[in-house]
Amino acid sequence: MESQVRGGTRWKRFALVMVPSVAATAAIGVALAQGALAASFSVSGQSFKVGADYLHGTGFSQYGAVDAGKGLDGKDQLHPVAVSAFNDAEITNMCQSVTTPGIPLLGSVTLTLTAGTGKEQVQAHTLYIDVEDLKTTKAVFNGIDIGVGADGINKGPAVKQGEIDQKQTFAHGFAQQATSADLYGVQQTAWATTAGTFTLPDLHMSLAAGSKGCF
């Protein structure tokens, strides 16, 4: 599966309603512990889990799309997702994990990454997350506008011109937006994430046999 930064600030089409999403990248390397840098990540043929105690995001928008990529068997796959975007986000106690099955002599192996577990929160700018499933204990939206027409509305995080969005979006539908969002007790399954910058304080990454991840 490929994930690219979106190619403009126009809303795409939206065919899902009220699927709030926390945004976080999957295992993108120890280098992130040294500061903020651009990050784009997807797991070929696999979804990954992301959990967080709390997320505060500003400039929220959301629309429906379809991720296209290769499965573990090499065949083409399509995954309907709700793409959630934030201009800026702060995340407390973030955990993310991905399980790779079928490793010789070991079976399944799970990579788990945690960050923002101390005094500093995870910081993200121009953040997109392609969500398949989401649960929260509570979600609070401020200045929310649901079901607005998607055509021509110049919302969502700004991105560099010329960068390509390779996702298929729905031909008709509607979208939603909010000035800010507060999400508590987040558990989500995602297929891809993209951020202009990610800063991960207290980063810790580990590998373990088995399929137990963040939740």
Descriptive keywords:
58% strand, 10 strands, 215 residues, disordered N terminus, mainly beta, globular
Give a short summary of the structure.
The protein is mainly β. It is built from no helices and 10 strands.
Rg over CA atoms, rounded to whole Å, is: 16 Å
Helix content: under 10%
Number of helices: 0
Q: What low-confidence regions span 5 or more consecutive residues with pLDDT below 50?
A: 1-37, 150-166
* Termini gap: 23 Å
How many strand segments? 10
Order of helices and strands: EEEEEEEEEE
What would the average pLDDT be, to the nearest integer?
A: 73
Task: Profile the largest sheet.
Answer: 10 strands, antiparallel
**Percent of sequence in beta strands:** over 45%
Overall geometry comes to globular
**Helices and strands: which structural class?**
mainly beta
Layout of helices and strands:
Blueprint: E1 37-42, E2 48-70, E3 76-103, E4 107-115, E5 122-135, E6 138-142, E7 145-149, E8 168-169, E9 174-199, E10 204-209
Antiparallel strand pairs: 1-9, 2-3, 2-8, 2-9, 3-4, 3-5, 4-10, 5-9, 6-9, 7-9
Report on this structure.
- The chain has no helices and 10 strands.
- The chain has strands at residues 37-42, 48-70, 76-103, 107-115, 122-135, 138-142, 145-149, 168-169, 174-199, 204-209.
- Strands 1, 2, 3, 4, 5, 6, 7, 8, 9 and 10 form a 10-stranded antiparallel beta sheet that branches.
